[in-house]
Amino acid sequence: MSLTFHFLDLKLFLCFFITVLIFQHHFVFSSTKHAGLSLRAVIDDSPESPLYLIGNLTIAERIEKLIKVTKARANYLDLVSRPNATVVPDNIRIPISRDSVFYAVEFTMGSQRHHVKLLMDTGGGLIWTQCQPCINCFPQKLEIYDPRVSASYGILPCGHPLCDGPNRLYNCVDRKCVYNVRYGGGATTRGVGSLDSFQFLIDPSTVKSFNNVIFGCSNDSRNVFFENTDISGIFGLSMSPDSMASQFSPLTHTRFSYCLVPFHDALPRPIVLRFGDDIPQPPPQQVQTTMFITPPGSYHFYLQLLDISIANHRLGFHPYTFITKSDGSGGCLIDSGALFTQIDTKTPGVNAYAAVMAVFQAYYGSRQLRRTAGEGSPGFELCYEYPQNYNDFAAITFHFNGADYTVDGVHGHFFGTSFFCIAILGGNFGTIIGAWHQQNKRIIYDGGIGGLQFADEQCINDVL
């Protein structure tokens, strides 16, 4: 069987997980309860990261870069959501690129505690790193992992469900579970399904070890785009059965959560990702819940979006406006890997993005605000001069099945020194609730109930 990955040409802050978020983090784990886990996720500052030295850029340059990140992420999600991305033997097509995968997880593995650094991919499942002995390995700055010196290493048996049966992800060859990952543009990696211990740092003197983690030991990798860096492979965090998220589900009860600190001046901030019992539970009267409606074969978090309101004006979209189409496009999902929210321009019967922007334009036009190009805000359609002491910003509400998700006016806009813009982009593949519209909200992904929970929160207080 082969895995095929198509690269995007062009990649926030947060993508971490699980679809979500999806976003290359360095993780510091801490375990505070029996069935809980928390980690701190920060931006990868390596020269290969698309957010490298973003703090040195002007606000205009940051916005331009982050919009490119958002659009790349949308392309990524579209490609992995298409029917031909279904997990079947010899037909797994998952795109990945340095522009949309820019967080890294850093940990040690094996009995020798070998140091590795892997790119995070919230849309893919396979965890893999280069291994000795090499048939053909790309150059990397960290020493290549050698399973022969790890007393805890083992090979995944052919009888394992990942290697046997109609839903297998790997193939059994010479009594070994093997994979063949083919990337668009000619990059490939091949190896053996394996088991070993992973160790994560809890504090400067304590590590948390997990035994028998399933991963890929790659000994033949060619034309890989992150060669000559510290990166030695990929860290899959989707809901695929071989991903880290799925493998940790007995510990976390398939629940994870984050609270995004506001992005002042378009600078993504570190976050705390919480799992299982480490997730704080907001007061019941403040929590809203909507169920996931993820299509079969997808590992992303789709929601049933029914309508949208701007400043209490409900647009009255048909309930089927935001449904997922037969080709996999359309629909609505929540994803922290896309910084800015995108509203679909190709919804049936009406351009939903244009309709939303028309209401925003009417709202600020009625307040006699002047349109502006938004000095240095490329990519936003609607920008206005920012009068002194003006604070009447329109909120936006996404009406989901069973829950109303309201983003206050301040967090729904981008603010420059003398202008502000509606922080929404037009999408060609569907509607994505991005990280910008998740600021100061406790977001809880609960696989146990099959739904998303959310509540307002001051995220600056969420620390390890």
Overall pLDDT score: 77
Could you list the spans in which at least 5 consecutive residues all have pLDDT below 50?
1-33, 42-51, 83-102
Decide which structural class fits the backbone: mainly beta
N- and C-termini, Cα separation = 42 Å
Per DSSP, the total helix count is 4
The oligomerization state is single chain
Short description:
The protein has 464 residues and is mainly beta.
Question: Can you lay out the helices and strands and say which pair or pack?
Answer:
Blueprint: E1 3-5, E2 25-30, E3 36-43, H1 59-81, E4 92-93, E5 104-109, E6 114-121, E7 128-130, E8 154-155, E9 171-173, E10 176-183, E11 188-203, E12 206-222, E13 233-236, H2 244-247, H3 249-252, E14 255-259, E15 271-276, E16 288-291, E17 302-303, E18 305-310, E19 313-314, E20 332-334, E21 341-344, H4 352-365, E22 383-385, E23 396-400, E24 403-407, E25 413-415, E26 419-422, E27 424-427, E28 431-433, E29 441-446, E30 451-456
Parallel strand pairs: 1-4, 1-10, 6-13, 7-12, 20-28, 21-27
Antiparallel strand pairs: 2-3, 3-15, 5-6, 5-11, 7-13, 8-11, 9-10, 10-11, 11-12, 14-15, 14-29, 16-30, 17-20, 18-19, 18-23, 22-26, 23-24, 25-26, 29-30
